[in-house]
Design a protein that fits this description.
Elements (H helix, E strand, L loop, with lengths): L6 E2 L2 H10 L3 E7 L2 E7 L2 E5 L2 E9 L3 H6 L4 E13 L8 E15 L3 H15 L9 H6 E16 L1
Antiparallel strand pairs: 1-8, 2-3, 2-6, 4-5, 5-8, 6-7, 7-8
Length: 156
């Protein structure tokens, strides 16, 4: 990271920033280069490890690409605010962001799929006792991204 003065290395603070984000973008590769997909997400955080969960349709370009590669990049950001100044070079933008990479997989096990869906719902709601109809669980793709490296940056 070039701007070490903006780097966040405290795991708790990094999780606070992830919790504040409402979208996670995953980067895949296709024949033309980068293919970036914005997704709703949830996560598990244990002993300084991070696992991200996503859900979506069980078919389409994203799923096709995941079936051909198991490593993806990801990015999420929050707290955006433009800082205006009298001089053009004085303008700036405040933010918090997380970037990283990890191993992605399509979850097949029903209990693990439900767990992933519970984590997504926990990220966006205060409710913890969601029920998921069997048919919906069967046809929904749940993705698990086991983060292998990540960094966090803040311009406050």
């Amino acid at each position: 990271m070039r701007r070490k003065d903006r780097e966040i290395t405290d795991y708790g603070k990094m999780l606070e920033i992830a919790k504040a984000c409402d979208c996670c973008r995953i980067g895949l590769l296709d024949e033309n280069g980068a293919y970036i997909v914005p997704l709703n997400f949830g996560y598990d955080a244990k002993e300084e490890d991070l696992i991200l969960y996503f859900h979506g349709a069980g078919e389409g370009k994203k799923i096709d690409l995941i079936r051909t590669q198991d490593t993806v990049g990801f990015e999420m950001d929050t707290k955006h605010m433009l800082v205006e100044k009298d001089l053009s070079c004085g303008y700036s933008f405040l933010f918090q962001s997380i970037m990283g990479r990890g191993r992605i997989e399509i979850i097949q096990d029903k209990a693990e799929k439900v767990h992933g869906l519970e984590r997504v719902m926990a990220h966006y709601s205060d409710k913890t006792d969601w029920e998921f109809p069997e048919q919906m669980v069967r046809r929904t793709a749940v993705l698990k991204l086991t983060v292998t490296e990540w960094s966090c940056k803040e311009h406050a």
